[in-house]
Amino acid sequence: MTDTVIDVRGLTKRFGDRTVVDQFDLKVPRGAIYGFLGPNGSGKTTTIRMVCGLLKPESGEGEVLGFDVLKESLKIKERVGYMTQKFSLYEDLSIRENLEFISRLYGLDRRAERVDQALADLGLSERQAQLAGKLSGGWKQRLALAACMIHEPELLLLDEPTAGVDPKARRDFWDAIRRYSAQGVTTLVSTHYMDEAVQCDSIAYIAYGKKLIDSPTAEIPKQIGLYGWSIAGRPLMRAQEMLEASPGVDLVARFGAEIHACGKDPAALERAVGAVKAAEPHVDITPIEAGFEEIFIYLMSGAMDNFQ
Amino acid sequence: MTTAPHSLSKLIDLSWARVFAVFLKELVQMRRDRPTFAIMIMMPVMQLVLFGYAINTDPRHMPAVVEMREDGPLTRSFLASLAQSTYVDVIAITPRAEDGEAMIRSGQATFLISIPEGFERRLVRGERPQILIAADASDPVAAGGAIAAIQQVAAQAFAPEFQGSLSFLAPLPAPYEIVVHRRYNPAGVTAFNIVPALLGVILTMTMVMITSIALTRETERGTMENLLATPVRPLEVMIGKTTPYVFVGAVQVAIVLAVAMLLFRIPFTGSFLAFLIAVTLFILANLMLGYLISTVARTQMQAMQMTFFIFLPSILLSGFMFPFRAMPLWAQVIGEALPITHFLRIVRRSF
Question: Of these four, A88, B60, B80, B333, which has the most CB atoms within 10 Å of its CB?
Fold first, then answer.
């Protein structure tokens, strides 16, 4: 097997006359946790569905796990675990019945044993007869992960797996992902949470169907080159309004009791912040280094329109 | 005094603005749900057309075969009147008894009108010869009207002939006798017609409805996405999803058969093997029809409405409620496209 698990080039998908994904390239090495970021409606789900063979792209080509995405989607499906955004197991089947159903679909051997093991890993052995619909959000998500891992896939595609899940369950979930990663399972995960994004080895950022950034997570702040100022003091409402209206300020965000104003043009940003200081002398302004947090907000707000 | 209207208005604290808000929202939602909207518009149109044009409880143009053993002026006059009558359509004239029998047995003809040998001679002699009408009475409604009509036709046909030298035959009672044999349902019991046919209606209703939501439910609940991601093939899903309902259908068949035979004492006279094959095919056809709906419908609600779209003509145009032959040709064409129409023919001949 090759060491590149996902290698797709020029994937394009149109729904009617709307191009949802445009000329999308992605290379994901084996064992990597690849974060997939982008505002809502940017085409993340569509891309993931194309990668696992659920959706045929209009154009483009590529291989997933060495199989052609266009012609060998069945072989891909057998080796990929796909976790949907919405809980997609049967709420009117019990936990055990759901896992058994999935393992039958994959034609797995030692079914009872695998299901027992999955239930034990989940800590759901005692509640296996309970209906899946009765589970809380966090448990449903763990069950869904167990279901898409039961056939021991080499690649996990997770579409916003932690949406609506409490922080503790989210941390547990990511621990599980890292364990799988250490075993050589590759993960492509879309997320809206910054604390999850930083845990990824690499990040691909997509907006309006176009991939705008694709680099190792640690290099992203440097690559974007965002400058920042902190504005502290009280009241800040007018300062915030002024900053939001100023040219050269791409991002205004509250961080506790401070406002962080960021922009790509340091001179324009400094002029804007200076103007605020002049109008509101009680605030304190200090230059800061725009960290991942600022960049994440900047990316997720869709402010990347004019990037490139 | 002045507080009374105030407290009343508080009791029915109704804001027309909010009512209007809800009204507008419903309108918009209704407009978005195109298929449901289309069915709401189509349903009354369909019912009007079906009840207004297609359904005719006074059946006409029933296929009849005439077995003519004698060819004389009187019988020819009767035949001519029969041919003009809108109640029956003479589809064949044969001198051989076996041919007529075969046609009524195969269902090609609903009536067999036979004029015996020596009819005219015996008529003139005042021996009151018989005209035999054998009717397929498995559908009593269809047969009843036409039997009365044939008697009328005979009277009208012979009246102008009973003049001059034959005028002595004119006074009542008629110098001939019309004997009616109701075949397959001699007593004209409506239950014999309705109960076996109900099996078709029950199966259509349940089989189509159950499978119509088979896929829409998966799509609506989001489980379809997961199913698509597994290696399962579409045909596997289809077979796996519909097979359980073949058994449900079999249970329904057993119940209806038991009720028909034990409660209504309807004799099962046909070939049981042929019946089993037919009922299996019928169940499968309905399941596939329902499955087809489930691939088109977006929501379970739409699927239900589409089921009714099949169900309504299945009841009205299949010959279940109203005689099939009495419908205009276009309605018969639609009827022929429905599985239940064919099933009813089989099941009515089996009992």
Answer: A88
